[in-house]
Write a structure and sequence with these properties.
heterotrimer; A alpha/beta; B alpha/beta; C mainly alpha; A: alpha/beta; Rossmann fold; six-stranded mixed sheet; five-stranded antiparallel sheet; 9 helices; 11 strands; 32% helix; C: mainly alpha; ABC transporter involved in vitamin B12 uptake, BtuC; two-stranded antiparallel ribbon; 11 helices; globular
Chain lengths: 259, 603, 290
């Protein structure tokens, strides 16, 4: 099951990531309940929803940073529930957290080297060159400390770090948070979309629903810790329920009625 | 019993009393106030030196073989009084290190270093206290009246020491079991929250340092009067560690524990080794003693960090109920109506115009402009909502209004006064109260204590008020408990009144947070996502309660994500995005505005 | 004036000893998140071990190697079996400092119980005295300075150019993110404790050599200098600690010229208090207390 992160991708690289009725949360209390989602190789799947809907918690549960209370996480056909971030990395899952996504006191080059920690040492320089082809802006800043980068540059470095292992799946937690709208759009259009070109599975959680829907193959909508809607972006945008879900106007199924 | 044994027992009594007083002072500072003063020994040393130089004749007398300042030859009890006063005075500059800015670890290191350095200075600067040789031939109290070598003298000395220790115990207990003591414990448990509830942290910490300093100073004065010598060797940093060990082992936060610790560690330890035959090289037993102290510290912190006699859980509520049952007025069961507003905190209030106005308020840190040019007006007696996507700056704005975060631009006008630069606790005292997003209950206080801690302007919440005892503040406290009971009944938590707040579930702790904020008699209440993790039915019940409070004249600003809630209860609602205010109106109006919709969907 | 220049020379020697100790302390803190006040006692315990070996006829410098090994092992044991369990339990950092004080007592006075209260000295020649440009230093002092430079350069090469060194810096910066990269952070912490512990052992031996005679409690005052250098440079910052050591080392010796030498530690103390009160993250405002 464990991927070989050094092998150039001759076979389709991605692997399927899925959850089955996963409930997860802190200290035994679920923040998300009974979520079942699926990402297939080559797909870009997004998870959107209003604040507090549990999107970040779902991602953390996938990599094992947050405890899964019930249900299963399945990677490449094998159950890996609660496996832990280092096991996930070794298996070829690239996780980019929302904050604390780079090593601030290390330089850009060193951050990339750390991203490639699991690679044989002699392969690292070649891999760095490949990552720089994807993010050419980083090439000029190899000796700069990551803490000194702007928000957009930092996020590119965070994604580049994960790219070093040429993972079979990417999990991105609100990659455009704190970025200006124009930059956010270009990050999503130019980079996130491309991640799936190698055949990897891409799962993105985003606040900017419209922007991420534009690049997704499929979308899940989470509210109140549960999955409320699922479908192709075009269908979702056209549906009047979609906007309501975000702005809470319509009473949703499952709400207790008036006492 | 032989003479020798009797003398020995008298000695024990003196040392016991002195150690108890010193440990009580540390128990107050560290156990109750949460101040980790690793330099504590300096206060005892200052007291001992003071008592010595106050009672010694001028240093030219006695053949002039000692050099020291002072030498006033004062009679008893002046040296002891001087010792206590100087101990307290020396403590004052320590507030600079332990003040608002420094965290526990760093302040602790700084204080430890100070103790080491003070010892070095005194050791080397001979004219001060005779340097390394120290002071000897210190006159003993009333030595001209009673022979200090006699049994009577020694026993009386010991008894006096113990009596003083007992008196200090009762004094400290009076302070600790009062509303003032509750504020100290709140500061210990969570100082930023205590700050936001109106506690003047600087004043509390200063008081703790001075009180502990005086106790330590007095203990030094009593000790030096008995053993007639004092040198730097007697007060290295190791002695502070022994005192800490005593308080930790005896029981942190419990003055009885401090006394037990004093008996077990400095006293019991020293004495136990007396009975061990002097095996091995000279100095082996003392060295092993220190090793054992170290082992005890680590072992206790691992196996029983609360100590032998842990801090007791105060069953204030049960006692109040019992007192009512036996007393004249019964505690009437509150009718199951919604929450009404507690009586206002009084004081002059500018009734005209909006209760809060911000003018181009901005907050930036680390190059990020979290809040940008926000100008809002909050009208009185309204339940105003504040919404916006993640990162919109809602919490930061709330923090700037409350004072937890400093606004870098603009002005904040509360009740017509410019409070932009005002400290958090002052804003809280004038009725600007906030709640926090993350769990912020005082964990080692019970639910009812959490609520009582928030009541402003309590008579018992000052140092002198506390000293005057329960007779002075008891009635006011009983009223406060009534009000707390009302709230707990409305929110359904009465059965947990005497439970430690830290032991409740997440949702229950949220409710404690809200109740506590209400107990603070706010004029303007800032609620930061209070409904997180609360069942929708209960959330709506709370919403109705909030509406009632506004009907009674309270103003509320509420940050929430549940937009359906905003629909039902808030008007107006302010929308923020990217640090700026986007729009304001009812939810229905806002839903129709395209920028608002876009902000939420586009982020 | 010549006294002044000579004192700079002594300052550089003190700074050299201090640098080895302070850098070891600060890197250990960066990776483990523990302000290990017992560091001074491990220093002196290793110095004593070197003394015992030295008394059997071996050169002190050879004994120093044993001291380094011992320092590494002791530091690892303390961290793995005492500090780490407390941290896993969620003990507050201040309480962990109190634990480290307990360990300080245990080690320091265990050494005193074994060796007795009297001071001891190494059996070693001081070497010739060299003077140049106003500085007067013995051969031994020159060796100490050279040793310190070697270690500083070695550490620099380790941290900057080796994969493990970078992994150490990454673990110190953000342990969870390091795990995300697949770095086995427990192994990193273990090895970091061994390395910084070895530095501690060397620092203890060199300190003892430089002091002439030493006893179980001799390093206590030196701990204050270490803390001053560490906080001046920013806790967790190795280059900051090197700079801090230079400043503190020279400041203490030079001030001894103006005030009597008994008070030379006072300048370090004043600097430390000012730094703690004004800029606890160090002059570069880059350190972090976890």
């Amino acid at each position: 099951m464990s991927a070989e992160p050094g092998t150039p991708g001759t076979t389709p690289r991605g692997a399927a990531l899925a959850t089955e009725l996963v409930s997860a949360g802190y200290a035994g209390r679920p923040v998300v309940q009974e979520i079942s989602i699926r990402v297939s190789p080559g797909e870009v799947v997004s998870v959107v929803g209003p604040n507090g809907s549990g999107k970040s918690t779902l991602l953390k549960a996938l990599v094992g940073v947050v405890q899964v209370l019930s249900g299963k996480v399945i990677w490449d056909g094998v159950e890996v529930t609660n496996w832990g971030p280092d096991a996930a990395a070794r298996a070829g899952v690239g996780y980019v957290p929302q904050v604390d996504d780079v090593f601030a006191p290390l330089t850009v080059r060193e951050n990339l080297e750390m991203g490639g920690y699991l690679l044989p040492v002699r392969e690292v320089p070649a891999r760095i060159t490949r990552v720089l082809e994807v993010f050419p802006q980083l090439a000029k800043m190899l000796s700069r400390k990551a803490g000194r980068l702007s928000g957009g540059e930092r996020k590119m470095l965070a994604m580049g770090r994960v790219l070093m292992l040429e993972p079979r799946a990417f999990i991105l937690d609100e990659p455009t948070a704190n970025l200006a709208p124009a930059l956010a759009q270009s990050l999503l259009d130019d980079h996130v979309r491309q991640l799936s070109a190698t055949g990897a599975s891409v799962l993105v959680v985003e606040q900017r629903a419209r922007a991420v829907l534009a690049i997704s193959d499929r979308t899940y909508v989470l509210t109140g810790g549960r999955c409320q809607m699922e479908g192709a972006p075009a269908d979702l945008i056209a549906s009047p329920d979609f906007v309501d879900t975000f702005l809470g106007g319509r009473r949703r199924a499952g709400d207790p009625g008036e006492e | 019993m032989s003479q020798g044994t009797l003398f020995y027992l008298a000695n024990l009594l003196v040392y016991g009393g002195v150690d108890a007083i010193a440990c009580l002072g540390l128990s107050m500072q560290f156990g109750v106030g949460g101040v980790s003063n690793f330099g504590y020994i300096i206060f005892q040393a200052a007291g001992a030196y003071t008592a010595a130089v106050l009672s010694l004749p001028s240093d030219h007398a006695n053949g002039g073989f000692q050099a020291y300042i002072g030498g006033l030859g004062l009679p008893f009890p002046l040296p002891w009084i001087g010792a206590a006063l100087v101990g307290g005075l020396v403590a004052l500059p320590f507030t600079l290190l332990v003040g608002r800015r420094l965290t526990g670890q760093v302040a602790a290191i700084g204080l430890l270093v100070t103790a080491v350095m003070a010892n070095l200075l005194v050791n080397n600067f001979v004219p001060l206290f005779n340097g390394a040789a120290g002071l000897s031939l210190v006159p003993q109290p009333l030595q001209n009246v009673v022979n200090p070598q006699s049994q009577t003298y020694q026993w009386v000395y010991g008894v006096v020491g113990v009596l003083i220790a007992v008196a200090i115990y009762f004094l400290f207990r009076r302070l600790t079991e009062s509303p003032y003591g509750r504020s100290l414990r709140a500061m210990r448990d969570n100082s930023p929250v205590a700050d936001a509830l109106g506690k003047d942290l600087l004043s509390l910490r200063t008081a703790m340092l001075v009180v502990g300093g005086m106790a330590a100073g007095l203990s030094g004065g009593i000790l030096v009067g008995f053993i007639t010598l004092w040198s730097p060797g007697a007060w290295g940093y190791a002695e502070t560690i022994v005192l800490f060990a005593a308080v930790i082992i005896g029981g942190t936060g419990n003055h009885k524990g401090a006394i037990l610790g004093a008996i077990l560690v400095p006293l019991g330890f020293e004495e136990a080794t007396r009975f061990i035959p002097a095996i091995g090289a000279p100095g082996l037993i003392p060295a092993l003693q220190w090793v054992a102290v170290g082992v005890l510290i680590v072992a206790f912190l691992w196996f029983r960090p609360q100590g032998i006699i842990p801090e007791p859980r105060r069953r204030i509520f049960a006692k109040a109920l019992a007192a009512r049952a036996g007393g004249s007025e019964a505690l009437a069961p509150s009718p199951p109506s919604s929450v009404r507003r507690l009586s206002s905190s009084g004081g002059a209030v500018n009734e005209e115009g909006p209760i809060l106005i911000t003018e181009e308020v901005g907050v930036s840190f680390g190059g990020v402009q979290a809040v940008d040019g926000v100008s809002i007006r909050i009208e009185r007696a309204r339940l105003t909502g504040l919404i916006g996507p993640n990162g919109a700056g809602k919490s930061t704005l709330l923090s700037a209004l409350a004072g937890t975060v400093r606004a870098t631009e603009g002005r904040i006008l509360y009740q017509g006064h410019d409070v932009t630069r005002e400290h958090t606790y002052l804003r809280a005292r004038s009725g600007l109260v906030r709640t926090f997003q993350l769990a912020s209950e005082f964990k080692r206080l019970t639910v009812v204590e959490n609520l009582l801690a928030a009541v402003p302007h309590q008579r018992g919440d000052t140092f002198w008020g506390a000293l005057r005892g329960r007779r002075f503040w008891g009635k006011e406290e009983a009223t406060a408990i009534d009000q707390a009971k009302e709230l707990m009944d409305q929110f359904g938590l009465t059965e947990y009144a005497d439970t430690y707040a830290g032991n409740l579930s997440g949702g229950q702790r949220r409710l404690v947070e809200i109740m506590r904020a209400l107990m603070a008699r706010p004029e303007l209440l800032l609620l930061d996502e209070p409904m997180a993790g609360i069942h929708p039915t209960l959330a709506r019940k709370i919403g109705k309660s909030l509406q009632n409070l506004c009907a009674d004249g309270m103003t509320i600003l509420l940050v929430e994500h549940e937009l359906a809630f905003m629909d039902e209860f808030c008007e107006p609602v302010i929308v923020m995005a990217e640090g700026r205010v986007l729009a304001e109106g009812t939810m229905a109006e806002l839903r129709g505005q395209s920028e608002v919709v876009e902000a939420y969907l586009v982020g | 004036m010549s006294l002044f220049i000579a004192s700079i020379g002594f300052g550089i020697v003190t700074a050299s000893v201090l640098a080895i100790a302070a850098v070891g302390f600060t890197v250990q803190f960066g990776v483990t998140d523990v302000l290990n006040l017992a560091y001074a006692s491990v220093m002196i315990a290793c110095a004593y071990l070197a003394y015992l070996i030295n008394q059997t006829g071996q050169s002190v410098w050879l004994a120093m190697v044993a001291a380094a090994l011992a320092g590494g092992i002791i530091s690892l044991v303390i961290n793995k079996y005492i500090y780490a369990p407390f941290q896993r339990r969620g003990t507050s950092p201040t309480a962990v400092v109190i634990v480290s004080l307990g360990i300080l007592l245990i080690i320091e006075f265990a050494v005193q119980a074994i060796e007795g209260p009297a001071n001891v000295s190494y059996t070693m020649g001081q070497g010739a005295t060299y003077s140049a440009a106003g500085l007067i230093l013995t051969g031994v002092q020159l060796i100490i300075i050279a040793l310190s430079l070697v270690f500083m350069v070695g550490l620099h090469l380790l941290l900057r150019y080796t994969r493990f060194g970078k992994a150490m810096r990454a673990t110190a910066a953000d342990r969870t993110l390091a795990r995300n990269c697949g770095i086995r952070t427990d192994r990193v912490v273990t090895l970091a404790c061994l390395i910084t512990g070895a530095l501690c052992g060397v620092a203890g031996t060199v300190f003892a050599i430089n002091s002439g005679s030493f006893g179980a409690t001799s390093a206590d005052l030196f701990l204050v200098l270490i803390l001053a250098a560490v906080f001046l440079g920013g806790p967790g910052q190795p280059y900051g600690a090197m700079l801090g050591a230079l400043v503190i080392g020279v400041a203490t010796e030079v001030s001894a010229v103006f005030i009597t030498s008994d008070y030379k530690y006072v300048s370090a103390f004043v600097i430390l208090l000012v730094v703690l009160a004004v800029r606890p993250r160090g002059i570069f405002n880059a350190g972090a207390i976890g």
